[in-house]
Records
---
Amino acid sequence: MAADRETQLLREKLCAAFCSFYKPGKNEDLTCLGYRAVAWFAAAGREIRFTAEQHRGRDSSGLLSGRLCPHCPFSANDCDYAAGVEGAPPCGGFILLNRALGNGRLSVDDIGKYELYLRMQGQVHDVAKAAREKGGEHVLGSADLHTHACYLIYGIMKPGEKERQVRPGSGHEEIFCLVSGRVVVRRDGLCIPLEAGQAFHLRGDESCMIENQDAAEAVYIISGGHGGTAVHH
Ligand code: SF4
């Protein structure tokens, strides 16, 4: 495939030629951030020179080690340069980026843009996968988001599955929205059907039970937050 060929080419032009960490055949699926950044800029059409050119301008090692290395999977345990070992060289990607900065083909703003791209990647959460792994429901909340202002619950109910409770709890409010399938909402001896695209709102200790009486899977999301007048927990 073309993507595999490009990866192989980059390994030869970048890793094999410039990186002292590179060991052919060893854990090649895991790439360092220097490699990923070079691949990102090259894919965006930016000129990265895979040749032994002179570094003419300012050294930007401090900028790169401060803004890129902290996001690198190798920085914690596997990179002597990031660990500050004296004389340890950075990876090949780092060297080429530093040259591109020094020779004016990349700017500080370009590095900032790539850093923003990394942050955006880190803000994406695979809630559907997590819900399946946890048996049907995943809460995207303070553990991942580092805020208590809001949260989201992604839920999947198998055909015939019952007794899924929705209850915001004291100080919270939630909106339940059925994304796909059909369910029944039970509350205080009453029962109403809910179809995909329909939503309802609960406050505090109000609660209901959801049942999927259908032959197909049902998927829902619950958006939650703190109520305006109640005590926070
Ligand atoms: S110098 Fe080390 S930590 Fe920094 S990007 Fe390269 S491999 Fe990762």
---
Amino acid sequence: MTSLEEERRNVPFECRGCWHVWEEEYLVRHFSDRHGNECLIWLCGGLPVLPPSPGAVICPRCGSQQATTFPDGYLARHPELIPPAHPPVPDDAPLRSPVKYPLFYERVT
Ligand SMILES: [Zn+2]
């Protein structure tokens, strides 16, 4: 006996190169094998792909592979992260990534 279930998931990513935030829509197929193990197949555009993870996606804006993912549902609670229609101003925008980045101090006053 196997069971098959499909689920649409929008997975948000953030580029660590240009801070672009975007979402990819995946179709996730859940099924259980005969031993009761749950298996997942990730499909994107109808093709099987690697599960979304840092390094598995390419930034659509700058082509960087240094993209990070957000926790599930993170963007729903932080709609301000979804890029507005106008171009962002990278230097003025505070970093709102949930990922902790090292702080760099160029000079100490
Ligand atoms: Zn980028």
---
Amino acid sequence: MKNRAYLNNLLILIINNMAKLSRKTKQKEIILEELGSFRSFFTAEELHEKAKKKDNRLGIATVYRFLKEFKHQEELHSYSCDRKTIYSKGKNNHSHFICEKCGTISHLDLKSLDFFKGKINGEICHFQLDVYGTCKSCVKK
Ligand SMILES: [Zn+2]
Ligand SMILES: [Zn+2]
Ligand SMILES: [Zn+2]
């Protein structure tokens, strides 16, 4: 009889684990789907907001875990924007012009990699550039 109870407990444990596992797969599917809906850069919080609507048990920690996983698989690229980490599915470049006087950050659209020519010992995936200076309205002052 003791053995039977043990077996029952074991069975419950296995079923619980399977349920957990399938929930994980489902959450991964949701995250992948929502990832696909972004056309540009996004933050983990924005992704979490969208994913939460499909599964309210899906926490921000899960989102971070998957983002890290995708990044290692080189399916996702990360950048730092105004002290926040943002992500992109494509190998987009992300560059800023930052005013040293007022701290205003504007985005630059740099596509050419010409200035890297002969300077990098390897293959470029994406780049991020911060250019510092004085913005127009601060120059006028
Ligand atoms: Zn990259
Ligand atoms: Zn930015
Ligand atoms: Zn300024």
